[in-house]
Amino acid sequence: MLRVGVIGAGYWGPNLIRNFNLMNDVEVACVADLDTSRLAHMKKLYRDIHVTTDHRELIDSSLDVVAIATPVHTHYPLAVEALNANKHVFVEKPLAASSRQCEELMELSIRHRCKLMVGHTFVYTSAVKKMRDIIDSGQLGELYYINSQRLNLGLFQKDINVIWDLAPHDISILLHLLGEDPVSVTAVGMSHLDPAIEDVATITLFFDKRVIAFIQSSWLDPDKVRRMTFVGSHKMMVYDDIEPTSKIRIYDKSVEKPNYYDNFAEFAYSYKYGDITIPQLEGGEPVHNELRHFVDCIVNDTPCASDGQAGLRVVKILEAAMQSLNSGGRRVAVN
User: Fold this and answer.
1) Which of 21, 27, 226, 246 sits between 20 and 30 A of 89, alpha carbons compared?
2) Position 124 pLDDT exceeds 70
3) pTM of the complete model
4) How far is residue 122 from each of residues 118, 126, 185, 335, measured CA to CA in Å?
């Protein structure tokens, strides 16, 4: 039986508590938060859980696992404390506020032989798993470009901009699907409500093999949009996470140019319009799949799919995007 403590009972922490609590081989023993009203709510839901405003009670206890769902600037110091206390650590995305912090957390996890996992939740969805199978099978042909939109009205963050808040989801999905990192990045954005924090932004990722990806993030859109479009030489695919049933649609559409032509008058593109296929997806809550994977990795001592290295890769891209944003959108290499 793994004993788990959760730091942060605000927006996302309750999801971690609930899903850990559903597992027969896990006991959520303690929850820490600075907001006593949130702790009172957790205590009402789970009477046997110990609650505290001092996270050090979790660190100094006999817990096996510490899960962190707090503001980004606190991820690193809290994870350092937990790893140094020989706890396995789960951290919500992004892993830390800088690539150097990510590297230090990875070093600590190796030194203390503890698992370090970041909450790239979408990697554990049946839709993303299916899309990876589709791309790897070659159904789409040569991948041309990807367009990703993650838009909504709020929730505005006080310590990070929209890139650090929303883009990690899309970046982690793209890295998982393509199996490679971008070579360079550009980013543009604008601050409308708080002059110090961008609330809308667009990132462009340049990959090898001429693949390009666009990520649009916004806290100022009237509609909630979670949509990714993949355009290939043979077929096209749309992933709509808002869609309750048919989240993935494969369009038998493409454009071909003639192999040979004698003059411009004979040049004409060929357009294919075929059927739409909707793959069947497995059920299961992504957060539960994610945490179940984390627990299994601890019990069986196996690598985590979204480990510290995965978290580092995403943060490096975020850093390059911020360099581009702060320099007027110039192209920045991803180190």
Assistant:
1) 226
2) yes
3) 0.94
4) 11, 9, 22, 24
Residue 210 in domain: yes
Is residue 6 domain-shared with residue 105, that is, in the same domain?
yes
The pLDDT, as a whole number, for residue 137 is: 97
Say if residue 181 is in the same domain as residue 59: no
Angle at the Cα of 105 (from 100 to 109), degrees rounded to 5? 150
Average of per-residue pLDDT across 48-63: 95
Task: Name the residue range of residue 130's domain.
Answer: 123-284+316-333
Cβ atoms of 79 and 89 within 8 Å: the answer is yes
Q: Are residues 140 and 239 in the same domain?
A: yes
If asked whether residues 157 and 217 sit together in one domain, one would say yes
pLDDT tens digits, one per residue of 245-275: 899 999 998 888 776 555 555 556 778 888 9
SS3 166: helix
Q: What is the C-alpha to C-alpha distance for residues 220 and 200, in angstroms, rounded to an integer?
A: 7
Beta strand 212-218 with 143-153: parallel, antiparallel or unpaired? parallel
Note whether residue 183 is domain-resident.
Answer: yes
Residue 39 pLDDT greater than 60, yes or no = yes
pLDDT of the residue at 267: 57
In this predicted structure, what is the pLDDT of residue 271? 84
Quickly list DSSP for 63-83. Answer: -SEEEE-S-HHHHHHHHHHHH
To which H or E segment does residue 294 belong?
A: helix 286-300
In this structure, what CATH number is given to the domain that contains residue 23? 3.40.50.720
**Domain shared by 200 and 257, yes or no:** yes
Domain end among 90, 114, 138: 114
Same domain, 151 and 169: yes
Predicted pLDDT of residue 94: 98
* Residues in Cβ contact with 292 at an 8 Å cutoff, skipping those fewer than 6 apart: 23
Looking at every residue in the chain, the average pLDDT score rounds to 95
Whether residue 174 lies inside any domain: the answer is yes
Helix (DSSP H) and strand (DSSP E) numbers for the chain: 9, 15
Q: What is the mean pLDDT of residues 3-18?
A: 97
